[in-house]
Amino acid sequence: MTEAVHTRRVFSGIKPSGGLTLGNYLGAIKRFVDMQSADFETIYCVVDMHAITVWQDPAALRHATRELVAAYVASGIDPEQSVLFNQSQVSAHAELGWVFNCVARVGWMNRMTQFKDKAGKNAEAVSLGLYAYPSLMAADILTYHATHVPVGEDQKQHVELTRDIAAKFNHDFKVPDFFPQPEPIIDGPATRVMNLRDGSKKMSKSGASDMERINLTDDAALIVKKFKKAKSDSEPLPDSVEGLKDRPEARNLVEIYAALDNSTPEAVIAEYAGAQWGRFKPALADLAVARLEPITNEMSRLMQDPAEIDRILAKGADKANAIAQPILDKTYDIIGFVRR
Ligand code: TYM
Predict the structure, then answer these.
(1) Which residue range(s) make up the domain with 290?
(2) How many domains is the chain built from?
(3) For ligand 1, atom 36, which residue shows the shortest CA distance?
(4) The ligand 1 atom nearest the CA atom of 158
(5) Residues in the chain with pLDDT < 50?
(6) Which of 201, 240, 261, 293 suits 26 as a labelling partner, its CA being 20 to 30 A distant?
């Protein structure tokens, strides 16, 4: 971390629950890398306590945690410049999460669309943690007084809830400026990467078929195959982005291309207007391989030294704790907890 005084502090996190997808990369990790700059103090977390809202095999959780660190580092997160750690090593998250369980209202939680989607018809049988999860997420952000939260579109409602929790705490305890109002940062062409077989569904690590998604561990041949088989439609690419409006699969592939190429859908359309899928899909696959292969290779190299990954996490947890603990202490004083 630099010595500069940061007025802008970024916090974001990813769950280590199974594989990482191109959606996680383009919607989150790549944007986290872009925000590492002198303008921001950046804090990136492996949110392992969120992962266990759904049962995780312990060995698989350990592996997924280290693999996510490898993905962050291989993608360009610098553990010297950013704070990079796993949530369970900094107890302030869980402690502030409990406080926020007592601030957030049940009615607010009932409006969380992601809970409704995940719980489905099974809402009585899912864990209480899955239901309370957004207040732990608020604690993740607010225990650092973070001001900017880069996320994909699907997390917007949770960041808005975080703002409501911050405002209610500040109001209830008459500390108007204690918790900041964090801004969700949802920008760029790929804030909602869709399933490759059905453009109306989000690309997710839990989707039924592996052909629906690109995993950060896929090799070049598999990436090419998945883009070749990706659903498209019978029209060539349009000559303006408006022409993608009712073509979800086409739009998704153009947005993926734009995000991988650090460009915009407009620029992609300008280059490929009128192109058939037989031309566009191989170009997209080549681009994806060029961007992802070095990351995948570096991830597997880093995974050969798990002790080094654990050292990165321990160092990051110390740095995170140094920021979080004083804010938690202040919160406890505000609440009226007697402390030693
Ligand atoms: P998670 O682990 O489901 O996803 C991590 C990040 O990846 C983004 N993402 C996508 N973006 C675009 N297209 C997709 N198909 C796609 N799939 C996933 C997500 O929007 C997210 O930014 N609750 C969070 C983790 C979290 C967190 C936080 C985030 C816990 N505490 C505090 C920010 C701040 C989650 O489950 O993300």
Answers:
(1) 210-301
(2) 2
(3) 15
(4) 23
(5) 1-4
(6) 240
